[in-house]
Each structure stands twice: as C-alpha cells, then as structure tokens.
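Quick log. Single chain, no ligands specified.
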Amino acid sequence: MKVSRFALAAGLCAGMVLSACTNPATLGAQTDPNQNTKQGALIGGILGAGVGALTNNSDPGLGALAGAAIGAAAGGAIGNQLDKQAAELRQQLANDGITITNTGDRLIVSVPNDITFDTDSYTVRPALRSDLEKVAQNLVRYPNSNVQIIGHTDSDGDAAYNQGLSERRANAVADILQAGGVSYARITTIGQGENNPIASNLTPEGKRQNRRVEIVVVPNGNA
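-> predicted structure:
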C-alpha cells in the first residue's frame, strides 16, 4: 500500500516528539551542559523530516531522512551556540539579581527593574551599566541572533503610564547595547507594561518579580 507523504511526515514527527517526551533530559532540571545542543538537534530533525517528506515527491521516505539529517545538524549547531553563550554570560555577569534562562531555542536575560532603575525612572543605574555592557560584548561575539528587549512593570498605578514606562526602559537598555556594538538592525524593543506578569501582583514579592526588563536572544539559523 502506498503511504502518502503527508502521513509519513506526520508519523515521523510524532515518533520523534514521543522520544523527546520520554527523554529524561527533557523532564527534569538541566544537568547536562550539552542538553540544549541535543534538544536543538532533535527539534531540527523533527522539522527537517517533515519538510523533507513533503517536498520530495518521488521518494518521501528518502526526503524525510535527508531533511532530518540537515535539520538535526542545524538545530544542534543552534543549541550548541546557546549552551556556550549562556555559560559565558553566567561567568561574566557579576550581579546575582540577573537571571539567564536557556529554553533550548533562545536565551532570556532577565534584569530586575529594582536594581536597574530608580523608582519612576528610565535612566539605567551606573552600577548596572557594566553588566549590560558585558551582555553587549557577548552579543557581538555571537552575531547570529536577533535581540528582543522587553520592558515589564507591575500593576501599580495607571496602566497607560506603565506601558509608556516599560517602553522607555526597554529603549534605555537597547541604547546601552547599541553603544556596546550591537547592530541596531538586530534589536527590537517592546513595552509590555503590566500585561505579562510572571508572578502575582497581589504581593510585594510578586510585584518585584514582575518589574523587569528581558533581553531575549533568538538565533536566526545561521549559527
């Protein structure tokens, strides 16, 4: 019986997804320094297999295998870049308040507003400029990515004012990264205001967590 290339692609992708879900490295805390390299290769293989099966009309199976190999190589390279970049940032940044999260397809550098700005200000404190300059140097060393700078506030005060403040703070961080050599074309600034909390705004601690600027590093596939 002839199997359609659509069904073959779906089956291959489903099998790979199931294998990812049963991989212990994807279930618990990250203990393997190369975890994201492996995860990137797996995800790239899944996508490559699907694309290869759909685009090779004469032999979907062969197309899936070729696509999986190409996708795995590209995904592994991106994962390896993120692993290395995250490790360097953790070594270089002196402030314990800055957190670095490697999700496998991007890095999120979260900088609390409380240590970055004075109340109701969007001028970066001198003590934090050196850390942001180190982030800029890291981004220059790893040029194959785009950078989103996203400002967030808590829910205190007027929502429209918080929106504007989050935009101004994102732009202030972007200015430092650009001054440090990061191309303007790589950077997008976004103000989220109070719209994307990561904790409850009903407690002082939750509000503190919500007041932040995130520097999101997204590989562009040229790693």
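The chain has two domains: 36-80, 93-219.
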